[in-house]
Amino acid sequence: MARRKIIAGNWKMNMTPSEAVKLCAELKDLVKSDDADVVYCVPAIDIVPVVEAVKGTNVEVGAENMYFEEKGAYTGEISAAMLKDAGVKYVIIGHSERRDYFKEEDALLNKKVKKAIEAGLTPILCCGESLEQREMGVTMDWIRLQIKSDLVDVTADQVKELVIAYEPIWAIGTGKTATTEQAQEVCKGIRDCIAEMYDDATAAAVRIQYGGSVNARNAAELFAQPDIDGGLVGGASLKADFGKIVNYK
Ligand code: 13P
User: Fold this and answer.
1) Whose CA is nearest to atom 7 of ligand 1?
2) Ligand 1 atom index nearest CA of 165
3) Is 161 a catalytic residue?
4) Contact 146, 106 (CB under 8 A)
5) What is the mean pLDDT of residues 27-44?
6) Given CA atoms 113, 115, 118, 122 in this order, what sign does their dihedral have?
7) Percentage of the chain with pLDDT > 70?
8) pLDDT category, 20, cuts 50, 70, 90?
9) Quick one: pLDDT band at residue 175, thresholds 50, 70, 90?
10) Fewer C-beta within 10 Å: the chain N or C terminus?
């Protein structure tokens, strides 16, 4: 069965609650799509107003992070149950900005992935290499290590529902997109890794996005690749261009 495309915006630390509601109204008609799932991953404080603002549309809401503990004394953190109760469907886990600036490591990310799934959320698990790693020729080794560590004790049935985002760090926010060949090669490598860890049916089901300077001009070529099932879009998700990316065909 063909995988359904999933095109998600990652708003990062942008949009106050009132700006968020305005953006949802501006994008509402532009992001209509019958062929793709459309998701806005928004800052925690925007979740409640954005869930309200996209009611009755084709847009689902995602969070940009969560903590793995059930509840309790974890000042500043947000639990999977809180996200679920607020109407969130997806949660980005392990974005390179969290790995880098907030020192989130694979053992922690594995706990977050498991907790998100347990709570009924769909993780968008991010992976990707630095420029240095690419130049050293260890891209696929590094990504396989990330995927294997982040999916410890996650079952095949759970992986089938998962979204994985391949985001080369050097392509994020730089305007420097990976070439279509580079993006396809790594996304296929991730699928092969899932096939080795699980089986072919699981590999065929998991959705793999490309992220890193996706824009209205390059989306069509990237998303047409056999192993690229959509995109995780930063900067271009905050403007009308996001509608063109969703309707890339
Ligand atoms: P840009 O699209 O701004 O490069 O960001 C990509 C990204 O990090 C999405 O998660």
Assistant:
1) 234
2) 10
3) no
4) yes
5) 98
6) negative
7) 100
8) very high
9) confident
10) N
How far does residue 168's CA lie from ligand 1's centre (Å)?
10
Whole-number pLDDT of residue 176 = 83
Establish whether residue 209 lines the binding site of ligand 1, counting it when its CB lies within 6 angstroms of any ligand atom. Answer: no
Torsion angles phi and psi, residue 54, rounded to 5: -100, 5
Q: Would you say 225 and 183 are in contact if contact means Cβ atoms under 8 Å apart? A: yes
Is the Cβ–Cβ distance between 245 and 215 less than 8 Å? Answer: yes
Domains of the chain by start residue, with CATH: 5-246 (3.20.20.70)
For 215-231, what is each residue's pLDDT tens digit? Answer: 999 999 999 999 999 99
Q: Would the CB of 167 count as within 6 Å of ligand 1?
A: yes
Please provide the DSSP assignment of 1-23 as one string: -PPPEEEEEE--S---HHHHHHH
Local structure of residue 179 (DSSP, 8 states):
P
**What is the tally of helices (H) and strands (E) in the chain?**
12, 8
Query: Average pLDDT of 83-106?
Result: 98
Res 124 pLDDT > 90: yes
Give the CA-trace dihedral at 25, 26, 29, 32, to 10 degrees.
Answer: -90
Going by pLDDT thresholds of 50, 70 and 90, the confidence category of residue 1 is: low
Of all protein residues, the one whose alpha carbon is nearest to atom 1 of ligand 1 is 234
Block residue for tokens 């209509």: 32
Angle between helices 106-118 and 139-150 (to 10 degrees): 50
Span from the CA of 129 to the centroid of ligand 1 (angstroms)? 14
Evaluate: CB of 94 within 6 angstroms of ligand 1. no
